[in-house]
Each structure stands twice: as C-alpha cells, then as structure tokens.
C-alpha cells in the first residue's frame, strides 16, 4: 500500500490506470481537466493512447470505438460536456459498449459557474439519454473513493458491457487528501464469444451480458444504434425485437441491483432523525450526525454510493424508524424525490439546498434542519 | 482536528501556500485535506485556501471556522468574515485594515519589501507558522525545494521564521493536536 497526497481528479486518473485503462479521449473542461492532463502524461508511458478530441461529441465516440477495438476506455468531463456526450452514451448503451465516463459536477445549467461545486447532474446522470435505458452511477465522497470507485466502475463496465458514470464534483476534484493506492488491481477481461455462432447481443439470462467480439479478430459483427436482434441485424419495425432488446438492456442493470448497490449507514438503528446524502456533502453530514448524537438525538446517516440503480428495499428499510429525514444536496432538490418515494408517509422530510459560489453545506445547517424549531 | 487558512487575492500564491502546508503536514505523517476557493481569473479576486489536518482521516473538510487564518489581502476577507470571526487566531498583514478581536497584525508585506523578497508574502507567512514548531522547517524546505523559485523562497521562509518568533506560542496553542 502506497500513501499519496492526491486531488480527486488525480485519484480518478490513478484509479483508471490501476484498473488497466489504456485509452482516454476527452475535451478539457473545468473542473475535470486535471484527469485529462494526468492521462495525457501517463498513458503514452504505459503503452496506452491519449487523444484530445475536437469536442466532446468526438471524444465519447472515440471512446466507444476504442472499446470495441478491445481497449479499456474512458473519458472525463463536466456538465456542459456531459450534456454533449449524452447522444454518444445512448449509442454506447444500445451497442453494449463498456466504458467509464467521469462527470465532475459544477454549478449549471449551461456554463453556470465553472469553478464551483454542485450536485445538479444527479438526474441527468440517470436519465440524460432519450429512450428506455439504465446505467450504473457511482458517487465518490473523497479522493480515496474517487480512486476506489473508478476501479470499481471499470470492473462493472467490463462485466456488464455498459457505460458507467462516476459522478464527482469540484470539491472532490480539486481537494487534495491522503489516498491509499493499491499495489495490484485485478479486473477480469471481458468475455469473448467462444465461436462466431454465439450471439453478441443476446443472453438467455438478462443479468449476464452477452460476450463481446473484439473488432479485428475475425468476428463479423454489426454494431448499430438502431434496434437489432441477437446477432446485430437491424430490425426497426417489429415490436418483439425492440421490446426484447431494451428490456434486456435495462434488466441487465436493474436485476443486478444487489450487486451494484453500495451504501453506507452510520449511527443508531432506531434513529428518529435520518440524514440521506451522497457525494461530498456526506462529509458535512457525517459531522452533523456526530453533533446530533452528542446532543442525545437518536440519528443515523444513509449515504448512497451507488445512485443508480436504486435499491428501494434497502432505502425503505433504513428509513423505517425515521420521523425526520434531512436531505442535504448541492442542488435545488433531486435525491429528495427518492426519499419522498421511499420514506414512510408520516415522516417529515426537510430539504437543505444550497448551490453556487463554492460554498459547501455546513454541518450546522444540517443539524439546524434536523432539529427544526425545537432546538 | 486543526486547520490553517490563507486568504488573499489572486496572484499572491494563496493556493501555493495551502499546497506547501498540506504537503509538509502529510510528510510529517498526518492526514490532511486541502481545499481552495477561487474564481476563473488568475490575478485579482478573492482566494481562500485551507488545510485541515488530524492524526486520523479527516472526517469533514467543510469547516465553519479555522484554528489559524492568515490574511494577506482584504480582497479575501469579506466573503469569509463569519469564518474569521469564529476562528481561534487570525494573523493579518499590517496593511489589511480590519478589526477582529481574535487578530494580531504582523508586518509581512513590509518585511518582503525591505528584505527584497517582494511577492513572497505567502512563503513568509508559512515561515511564521513554522516558527511555532507545528511545521518542521526542514520538511518545509524539502517541500519548497520541489517547487519553482526555491532559493528566494528559502530566504522568505527564514524571514518568516524570524518574524513568527513573537507569536510562536499563540500559533502553537491553536494548532497543536
């Protein structure tokens, strides 16, 4: 184990390299650019490829191409670039292309505040593409987790043949903390078809991704964003083919929720007050939890590490005893929709929304919201 | 958990100072979290950088006051006034006009002008902190040696060590873990 002082962006890059990433294409954008700088410097030394694309549309499509050529491929961007990459992401979902995309959130919409942290892209990360689709979204709360979850993202991408989003933010990206780097990371290689008769876009068990035939190794494979059958042949008319395909693509993620869903619970089992959070805000939330408990309040914290797919059962169970639920977010309210859906009906749900200017949500604000007027 | 903040304006090396402090404390074996807040511009504008440090992993870097804050320019102050008011100790450059009950003034910028290390107020300030013994001056030197402007910075560091002697006990009292 090596200890290093790294920013969240550097930690993402280190995680990607540890996971065997050998292709990066991107277009620079604050606050994600340092990931690109790092990969530009390191990848050529290790036999990998780095391309600064002409824009984000090109970047995501280069990543898709590289992945089909057998590379472990990724890109990194921020809100405006993430918006531009949505079309490519949809194509990657439809073609079952493994890739990792890091979105370092800043305040939006549009160009917003480039250097200021936010969490306004949660819903976009889940739903940004048109059509029926689902991809895993992981949210680190520190540089250490940025490192660990980037590695995890590559493992999921390879196993399930899917794009995976790592949803970071400017605080994590530019904050430097101590990161423990692993000596060795093993990520299983993607499965190839045993022979050309094995369908590259069909699987008897929806939880298991079909094998991926690498281009240039003798497989004839049609890769299309249009509706296709198990062998990749376009079928843009029939109900059966379309329904079977999109159902399997969504089930591939949804039915693996137990495997994909990571979360952290701290505090009292029978808590009256619960804090639900994700990402960098969790750091303040943890201190708030300690402050509440030191005042004799029975409290717990539920931190979502996986933001998508959602494990409704776990969230419902963890919030069962809570009469008051505080949802601090650096946006105007997105995670709160899950809480409203899954909390017991008589609970009081309190939003703490603050975004812009690079001002974090402070522990005292969460404590105040939790105690309401009764303080 | 303790924290050190630098406030000033873009171009004063505020972020650089935070980096040096973070790397020094890290090399002294502590857990650190270093954050900063600045605009898109390289010069001008308000800049804050700070380091939270502890013997264990830092639970929360989003703190509401500092153990020690050093203010090198007024531009950095207004936005963080609440933080400063709640801090244990604030060191103001003597050119900063502000009244805070928890503040002492030091002639950081004057020393830079008189001793020919203009523009290195940030490193003089690091020296002031190091005078307390919380930062090991030899580790600070090693960290600075990896960065640009090493020789002038060592001069500035030594000036700071001297200037910090009078406040060393107060600085140590707020920073010691």
What does it look like?
The relative contact order of chain A is 0.12. Chain A has 14 helices and 15 strands. Chain A has two domains: 2-181, Rossmann fold; 264-374, Rossmann fold. In chain A, the strands form three sheets. In chain A, strands 2, 3, 4, 5, 6, 7, 8 and 13 form an eight-stranded mixed beta sheet that branches. The mean pLDDT of chain A is 96. Chain A is globular. With 375 residues, chain A is an alpha/beta fold. Chain B has 177 residues and is α/β, with parallel strands linked by helices. Chain B has one domain (2-175): Pyruvate-ferredoxin Oxidoreductase, domain 3, CATH 3.40.920.10. Chain B has seven helices and six strands. Chain B has helices at 14-27, 81-85, 108-114, 121-130, 137-145, 150-163, 168-175; strands at 2-9, 31-37, 46-54, 68-71, 89-93, 103-106. Chain B is globular, with a radius of gyration of 14 Å. The model of chain B has no long low-confidence stretch (mean pLDDT 95). The A-B interface holds A 5, 30, 114-115, 171, 174-178, 280, 283-284, 286-287, 290, 358, 360-364 and B 19, 22-23, 26, 31-40, 57-62, 64.
Number of helices of chain B: 7
Low-confidence stretches of chain A: none
Number of beta strands of chain A: 15
CATH superfamily of the largest domain in chain A: Thiamin diphosphate (ThDP)-binding fold, Pyr/PP domains
Helix content of chain B: 25-40%
Content of β-strand of chain A? 15-25%
Tertiary shape of chain A: globular
**Largest interface, C-beta within 8 A:** A-B, 22 and 21 residues
| CATH-level-4 superfamily name of chain B | Pyruvate-ferredoxin oxidoreductase, PFOR, domain III
CATH architecture of chain B: 3-Layer(aba) Sandwich
Structural class designation of chain B: alpha/beta
Q: Tell me the count of domains of chain B.
A: 1
Shape of chain B: globular
CATH topology of chain B: Pyruvate-ferredoxin Oxidoreductase, domain 3
Q: Topology as H/E string of chain B? A: EHEEEHEEHHHHH
Query: What quaternary form is this?
Result: heterodimer
> What is Rg of chain B?
14 Å
């Amino acid at each position: 184990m090596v200890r290093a002082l790294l920013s969240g962006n550097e930690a993402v890059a280190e995680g990607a390299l540890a996971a065997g990433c050998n292709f990066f294409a991107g277009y620079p954008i604050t606050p994600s650019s340092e990931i690109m700088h790092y990969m530009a410097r390191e990848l050529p030394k290790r036999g990998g490829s780095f391309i600064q694309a002409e824009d984000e549309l090109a970047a995501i499509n280069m990543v898709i191409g590289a992945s089909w050529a057998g590379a472990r491929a990724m890109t990194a961007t921020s809100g405006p670039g993430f918006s531009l990459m949505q079309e490519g992401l949809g194509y990657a979902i439809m073609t079952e292309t493994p890739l990792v995309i890091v979105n370092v959130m800043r305040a939006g919409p549009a160009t917003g505040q480039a250097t200021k942290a936010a969490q306004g892209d949660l819903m976009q990360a889940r739903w940004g593409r048109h059509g029926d689709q689902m991809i895993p979204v992981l949210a680190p709360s520190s540089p250490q987790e940025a490192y660990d979850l980037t590695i995890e993202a590559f493992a999921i991408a390879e196993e399930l043949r899917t794009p995976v989003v790592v949803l970071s933010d400017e605080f994590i990206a530019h904050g430097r903390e101590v990161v423990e780097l692993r000596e060795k990371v093993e990520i299983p290689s993607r499965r190839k078809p045993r022979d050309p008769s094995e369908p590259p876009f069909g699987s008897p068990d929806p939880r298991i991704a079909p094998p991926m035939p690498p281009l240039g190794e003798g497989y004839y494979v049609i890769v299309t964003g249009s509706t296709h059958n198990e062998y990749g042949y376009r079928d843009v008319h029939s109900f059966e083919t379309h329904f079977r395909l999109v159902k399997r693509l969504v089930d591939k993620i949804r039915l693996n929720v137990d495997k994909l869903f990571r979360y952290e619970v701290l505090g009292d089992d029978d808590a009256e007050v619960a804090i639900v959070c994700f990402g960098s805000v969790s750091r303040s939330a943890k201190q708030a939890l300690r402050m509440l408990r030191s005042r004799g309040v029975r409290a717990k914290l539920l931190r979502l590490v996986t933001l998508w797919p959602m494990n409704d059962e776990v969230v419902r169970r963890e919030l069962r005893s809570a009469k008051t639920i505080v949802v601090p977010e650096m946006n105007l309210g997105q995670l709160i929709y899950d809480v409203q859906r899954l909390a017991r009906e008589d609970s009081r749900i309190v939003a703490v929304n603050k975004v812009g200017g690079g001002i974090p949500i402070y522990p005292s604000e969460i404590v105040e919201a939790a105690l309401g007027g009764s303080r | 958990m303790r924290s050190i903040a630098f406030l000033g304006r873009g171009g004063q090396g505020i972020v650089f100072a935070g980096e040096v402090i973070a790397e020094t404390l890290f090399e002294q074996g502590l857990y650190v979290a270093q954050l900063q807040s600045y605009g898109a511009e390289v010069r001008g504008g308000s800049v804050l950088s700070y380091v939270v440090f502890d013997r264990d992993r830092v639970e929360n870097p989003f703190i509401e006051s500092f153990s020690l804050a050093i203010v090198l320019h007024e531009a950095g102050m207004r936005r963080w006034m609440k933080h400063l008011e709640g801090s244990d100790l604030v060191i103001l450059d003597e050119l900063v006009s502000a009244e805070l009950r928890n503040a002492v003034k030091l002639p950081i910028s004057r020393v830079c002008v008189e001793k020919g290390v203009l523009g290195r107020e940030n490193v003089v300030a690091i020296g002031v902190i190091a005078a307390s013994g919380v930062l090991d001056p030899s580790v600070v030197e090693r960290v600075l040696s990896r960065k640009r402007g090493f020789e002038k910075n060592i001069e500035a560091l030594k000036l700071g060590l001297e200037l910090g002697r009078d406040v060393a006990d107060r600085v140590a009292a707020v920073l010691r873990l």
